[in-house]
Specification:
Layout (H helix, E strand, L loop, with lengths): L21 E6 L14 E6 L5 E6 L3 E7 L5 H9 L10 E8 L4 E3 L4 E3 L5 E4 L6 E7 L4 E14 L58 E18 L9 E4 L5 E5 L3 E6 L2 E10 L12 E6 L6 E6 L4 E5 L11 E3 L12 H5 L3 E4 L5 E5 L3 E6 L8 E4 L8 H6 L9 E3 L5 E5 L4 E6 L7 E5 L26 E3 L4 H6 L12 E3 L5 E6 L2 E6 L1
């Protein structure tokens, strides 16, 4: 089968218009000058497949769940969409529940402290109106079940003897006896002794009250229960987990190995990728991220610190030492510097929903890859090119090692990733699109927006088939706007079916729609 070029994609025929992004919601917004606690900083964001639930994890080991509230009238909403009426309502979420997923631990064998910080969260298939998700810190993965339960309340017990008839008791004035009755049915005299059987006053104990359990359908509580713990399988820090489309298995990856797990078996995993050399002095690259194909349960991809992405097929062998495809961009002659390999390290990869493309993020750029074309990326987007002259300073303060995440829209027409100063950028990736929007994680996301200069359309050559966009704002950022390396937007997620983005700025969760 002949490989399709990027211009053959169905969306290539559509003229893509830039989206106008608006602020929707914010959770945990901090006041001006308010200090942020380290444990409250968000470290993971993930929508579920339906987009009706959103999960965040923080450095304190907590997982917070949000649920969508504007989809209760889906029938009328679908009817309006069918009649082409504009839907002005934006997605609305509300706090659902939270639970402590991980606690700080200490590895006594290695004298190593294990942080409680949540590295990744992945949603699993729902069942019986319960939510299931995986969360991991550096060493341990946990499988959680979150379910709604009706609240059972005990009615107030009335201990007033004058109202004894309310309890249906047959006691009356005839119940009076020489024995003085005390509250709650006690008696001043012992009702039982070795020489006498247990006896009650005639007519029963007037003051005995039985609590009544009332089940209320309106008050619901959310109980989170850990069903499985997958531990002691990684010698190095876990950087990613990914669910398989079969709904039964998932993978976990650290710097040198990728393990395959069954959700129902926590004491056994299979090592499917091992890049550890016999001599650690020969180590030249490490695994940075791994992800399953969205529909092919036998295919997964993993990225490396050298900027390459490998596609492997689990059907080839039990230990996938050999990849089926290798995606990497060859550097131009004479362009190599001390920072070349550092900034080429891939921090995140995401499959497009159709499984045809992979989006990767390195320090400076976003790259879009076509699985049918391994000669190079089909598009490259400059995220913050104005920082290139500052690489030496970024290396000195370790900012060059920051790991930014990336995401794709559900229709595959746009990609997004974060930057410094709490900025994130949205790019159109359909052929011919010049969309490159800069947004700030605040209540006014467009205030840092700079109009893109009009450029003549460029055709793709048969040799490169690649476009580079986003660098046109570099001079403006370098000469005008200052950037703050202490405020960085590392984590963001795109709603699976709508143009809605959730992003984390320190301890605040911002949501935008278009």
């Amino acid at each position: 089968m002949e490989a399709m070029s990027p211009d053959d994609r169905p969306e290539a025929a559509q003229q893509q218009q830039p989206l106008e992004w608006r602020f929707a919601q914010v959770f945990g917004e901090r006041a001006a000058g308010e200090d942020v606690q380290e444990v409250d900083i968000i470290s993971a964001i993930e929508f579920d497949k339906s987009g009706d639930h959103l999960a965040t994890g923080d450095r304190g080991g907590r997982v917070v769940l949000f649920e969508r509230t504007d989809t209760r009238d889906n029938a009328s909403r679908r009817e309006l969409e069918r009649q082409d009426y504009p839907i002005s309502r934006h997605p609305e979420f509300r706090y659902k529940t939270e639970f402590q997923s991980h606690e700080p631990e200490f590895d006594y064998l290695k004298s190593l402290e294990i942080e409680e910080k949540i590295n990744k969260i992945k949603w699993c298939q729902t069942a019986n109106n319960a939510l299931f998700l995986l969360s991991t810190n550096d060493k341990t993965i946990k499988y959680w079940k979150v379910q709604e339960r009706k609240v059972k309340r005990v009615s107030v017990m009335n201990l007033d003897a004058a109202q004894s008839s309310d309890n249906g008791s047959t006691s009356s004035s005839s119940t009076s006896s020489s024995r003085a009755l005390l509250p709650n049915g006690e008696c001043s005299e012992k009702l039982y002794n070795p020489h006498n059987n247990l006896s009650f006053p005639p007519g029963g104990c007037a003051s005995l009250r039985l609590p009544v359990v009332v089940v209320t359908g309106e008050d619901l509580s959310h109980a989170a229960r850990c069903r499985r713990v997958y531990a002691h399988a990684h010698d190095y820090h876990i950087n990613s987990i990914s669910n398989n489309s079969d709904g039964e298995t998932f993978i976990s990856a650290d710097d040198l190995r990728i393990n395959l797990w069954n959700l129902e078996i926590s004491n056994q995993s299979f090592n499917i990728v091992d890049v550890k050399p016999a001599n650690m002095e020969d180590l030249t690259e490490v695994i940075t991220c791994a992800e399953f194909h969205p529909t092919h349960c036998n295919t997964l991809a993993y990225s490396s610190s050298k900027g390459s992405i490998r596609l492997i097929d689990l059907r080839q062998s039990a230990l996938c030492d050999n990849h089926s495809k290798l995606f990497e961009e060859h550097e131009a002659a004479g362009s190599r510097s001390f920072f070349t390999e550092i900034i080429a390290s891939v921090s995140d990869i995401k499959f497009a929903r159709d499984g045809r493309h992979i989006l990767s993020r390195d320090y400076m750029t976003l790259k879009l890859w076509d699985l049918n074309m391994d000669s190079g990326p089909v598009a490259t987007f400059q995220v913050h090119e104005y920082l290139r002259p500052k690489l030496c300073d970024l290396y000195e303060n370790d900012s060059i090692f920051d790991k930014f995440e990336c995401c794709l829209s559900g229709d595959g027409l746009r990609v997004a990733s974060g930057s410094y100063s709490n900025l994130f950028r949205v790019f159109g990736c359909a052929p011919g699109s010049t969309e490159a929007t800069t947004l700030e994680a605040s209540r006014n996301p467009m205030r840092r927006q700079v109009p893109n200069p009009v450029r003549p359309a460029r055709t793709l050559t048969s040799l490169t088939r690649a476009v580079r966009r986003g660098g046109e704002n570099a001079a403006i950022e370098a000469n005008g706007n200052s950037y703050d390396l202490s405020t960085k937007l590392l984590h963001l997620a795109w709603h699976p079916t709508e143009n809605s983005i959730a992003c984390a700025a320190a301890n605040s969760l911002y949501m935008y729609y278009a």
